[in-house]
Design goal:
- By secondary structure, this protein is an alpha/beta fold.
- It has a single domain (7-188), classed as Phosphoglycerate mutase-like (Rossmann fold), CATH 3.40.50.1240.
- 31% of the residues lie in helices and 19% in strands.
- The protein is built from six helices and six strands, in the order βαβαβααβααββ.
- A six-stranded mixed β-sheet has the order 3-2-4-1-5-6.
- Helix 4 (116-131) crosses helix 5 (143-154).
- It is globular, with a radius of gyration of 16 Å.
- The two termini are 27 Å apart.
Amino acid sequence: MLREGATELLLIRHAPAVHGGRLAGRRDVAADLPGEAELAALRAACGAVSVVASPALRCRQTAQALWPGAEVAADDRLWEQDFGAWEGVPFADLPDLGALEPEALAAERPPGGESFADLCARAAPALAEIGAQGGRVAVVAHAGTVRAALALALGSVPAALAFQVAPLSLTHLVALPGGQWSIAGVNRVFA
């Protein structure tokens, strides 16, 4: 039973992006949606929810595939990290950042883009607002956005970078009254 005033945030990373082997980030690429069996399993795990999504095409497509006909609210603050000059670069050609400490990695800003810490600062108010709604809310967004929610729960931006977030995975957080967070599960997949 959910504590009074609490909100269950069911954070879902979008279906695999049709990125052509290039970093998608803010590029508005489509989703490669799975079959109905995988969608049905994820939908059943979520139960009855209201739905909020990043305005990215891949997130909107994933949300509509999971909940056909549902009203999906879009929030620009839930977009993926802006990778600036690295957007659209083939994965094999991206710079090797080496073995950076978590704090340095969180602060690393691609040319013309934003760092993971910047993403967290942008997304945190949206996640806090969603967390204050009460009930169950599905948030269909990006790996970076899911990690930003984990940063809120952990109270540490660098620590959130340690989590893997697979496409179509479910990360379950509970936002408690007073701004406290609880992590109920991370990176649950249904394939």
